[in-house]
Amino acid sequence: MAFLRNDAINRVNLHSGIQALAQGAGAIFFLVFLLRAGVSVPVALLAQAAIVTGRFLLRPAMLPIARRWGLKPMLIVGTLGIALQYPLLARVDGIGIALVVLVVVASVGEVFYFLAYNAYFAVLGDVEHRGHQIGAREALVSVVGIVAPLAGGWALATVGPGWTFAAVGLSRRWPSCRCSARRMSRSPVNRRAPSARRGRR
């Protein structure tokens, strides 16, 4: 099991498992909580669509930002953004400014986080063990995905949305990816990829 010898990628996979726990315990109830907060079904669905649309519109701006600032700051901004959306979700009370702020923060945080995370994983991973490392990550995420909704539902019913979403937000700030920053900082960054166009054909 040589693919487990990469300590950096193991830490990133641990980070993925914790993110999956937060996703399953909190994000799965996103739509339900909006409905209980007095947001109508069409507006709640529109809010989720607006988050995805915002991610799509912001994506072209990510490459210049990544080239200027690097992946680590992008990942930090994204992690803080997706963590902040859960306390904001708990503050939503019908259609208002809190809902608008939630949509904006979620869009920005998610586009920063997921693009940087995928690039981060590619840089830190081993080419010869890529499939095994991704498989280990997905296996962990799948197991956590079974338990997380049960834990999230219990927490919402027991301690309420405020404490539950605060805990989810804190867990999404888990800094395990930061432990890999030293190795990543030594990885060369190519400003141009002349073979990329040929690879698309």
UniProtKB/TrEMBL annotation:
It comes from the Bacteria. Keywords: Membrane, Transmembrane, Transmembrane helix. The keyword Membrane applies. The chain crosses the membrane at residues 12-33, 39-58, 70-89, 95-118, 139-157. The keyword Membrane applies. This is Major Facilitator Superfamily protein. It comes from Bauldia litoralis.
